[in-house]
Amino acid sequence: MIQTFATLLVFQTLGEAIAHALSLPIPGPVIGMVLLLCYLLLRKGAAQQLTPTANGLLRHMAILYVPAGVGVMVYANRIAAEWLPIAVALVVSTVAALVVTALVIQGLKRRRQA
User: Fold this and answer.
1) How many domains would you assign to the chain?
2) Does 29 lie in the same domain as 83?
3) Residue 46 belongs to what domain range?
4) What is the mean pLDDT of the chain?
5) Positive or negative CA dihedral for 68, 73, 77, 79?
6) Alpha helix positions (H), the chain
7) Contact of 28 with 12, CB cutoff 8 Å
8) What average pLDDT does the segment 65-72 reach?
9) What per-residue confidence (pLDDT) applies to 92?
10) How far is CA 98 from the centre of its chain?
11) What is the per-residue pLDDT for 53?
């Protein structure tokens, strides 16, 4: 368990280091996840090795929302003052995500049928 947890942390740290060193606009954890995906694709048995630890982390994922909830409470006055731009941004980004997802699925279906 410690070895697999260390593996996950190494990829996140690598992602952070790459993002910082190259001054990329992409968050380090995202780069780390892409690196982890490449690792899992290249090394066939790695996914089975990481599965128990990853499932354990996912089981307790709800605790990761506590800092976000605290942040909302700390900035409640600012959120109340700027609720309209926040609501518009949420609606527009949700619609954009749905449209892009639908287009990607549609494209993949066409590609699969061809």
Assistant:
1) 2
2) no
3) 1-59
4) 90
5) positive
6) 2-21, 28-42, 46-59, 66-74, 76-81, 83-113
7) yes
8) 83
9) 98
10) 17
11) 82
